[in-house]
TrEMBL record:
Its main location: other. It comes from the Bacteria. It comes from Mycobacterium yunnanensis. Belongs to the short-chain dehydrogenases/reductases (SDR) family. It holds the Pfam family adh_short. PANTHER family: HYDROXYSTEROID DEHYDROGENASE-LIKE PROTEIN 2. Keywords: NADP, Oxidoreductase, Peroxisome. Gene3D superfamilies: NAD(P)-binding Rossmann-like Domain (3.40.50.720). This is NAD(P)-dependent oxidoreductase. The keyword RNA-binding does not apply. One of its GO terms (molecular function) is oxidoreductase activity. InterPro entries: HSDL2 (IPR051935), NAD(P)-bd_dom_sf (IPR036291), SDR_fam (IPR002347). It is found in: Peroxisome.
Length: 281
């Protein structure tokens, strides 16, 4: 498996999972165009688009940092045009940019609802739409959206606003898969079984205690890498979990991804258990 010579366009990769996915591709010498809004350091968020680009270059890839807003169609079109001008086309489109708010319908104002759905759903649609014309005819093109499987049992239908935003991403990705089957462009979604150590987990889901029960972002990056190397014409329209992908690819020890060895892992939303059924606790 290798992504050598491939070009990835990824949204929101200044830090965390997006940056880990970009660096995993960069390790093969891939080109990475990353679009994000973080140009200046934030007191609660590590990294900027420029520090991320430096890390991608240090990992072995070629980086093109682009300041932009995935909610703005013209901004997205401009970013994609810059990537194509620099690298000649796009092989991998990763919809990573996402906003989170776990409040109930009585707590999330419309402004926050619009922000989440604008970044998550509109952003996924806009980035995918802009990339697709430059993916047609490429060798093994993949669109990967970081969103959960759609489960409609009552216990999975809250919090309302965040559920709508994340399910919207998945619906977009699955629709794209069906529309592009004839073009040979794969579209799949990927989601972790456990909490993943990111700023969102630290700042919103329990601080250091939650981080101690999380897996490293590399669990997402390695699973994404496996998907990118699957045949696009055959592997499309799937909503899969990171750990399942890794185990099916031959990984025999998921504990290497644990932030704190031996800790009781926190299970992510829309997931029953931290490990694939039968794999162990």
């Amino acid at each position: 498996m290798s992504l050598s010579g491939k070009t990835m366009f990824i949204s929101g990769a200044s830090r965390g999972i997006g940056l880990a996915i970009a660096k995993r591709a960069a390790a093969d010498g891939a080109n990475v165009a990353l679009v994000a809004k973080t140009a200046e350091p934030h007191p609660k968020l590590e990294g900027t688009i420029f520090t991320a680009a430096k890390e991608i270059e240090e990992a072995g890839g070629h980086a093109l940092p682009i300041l932009g807003d995935v909610r703005d169609g013209e901004s997205v079109e401009s970013a994609v045009a810059q990537a194509v001008s620099q690298f000649g086309g796009i092989d991998l489109c990763v919809n990573n940019a996402s906003a989170i708010n776990l409040g109930s319908i009585t707590e999330v104002p419309l402004k926050r609802f619009d922000l989440m759905n604008g970044i998550n759903v509109r952003g996924t649609y806009a980035v995918s739409q802009a990339c697709i014309p430059h993916m047609v005819g490429r060798d093994n093109p993949h669109i990967l959206t970081l969103s959960p499987p759609i489960l409609l049992e009552s216990k999975w239908l809250k919090p309302t606003a965040y559920m709508m935003a994340k399910y919207g991403m998945t619906l977009c990705a699955l629709g794209i898969a069906e529309e592009l089957r004839g073009d040979g462009i794969a579209s799949n979604t990927l989601w972790p079984r456990t909490l993943v150590a990111t700023a969102a987990v630290k700042n919103l889901l329990g601080g250091e205690e939650a981080m101690s029960r999380a897996r490293k972002p590399e669990v997402y990056a390695d699973a994404a890498y496996v998907i990118f190397n699957k045949p696009a014409r055959e592997y499309t329209g799937n909503s899969v979990l990171c750990e399942d992908v890794l185990v099916e690819s031959g990984v025999t020890d998921l504990s290497v991804y644990d932030c704190v060895p031996g800790s009781e892992l926190g299970v992510d939303l829309w997931v029953e258990t931290p490990n694939p059924p039968g794999y162990g606790s």
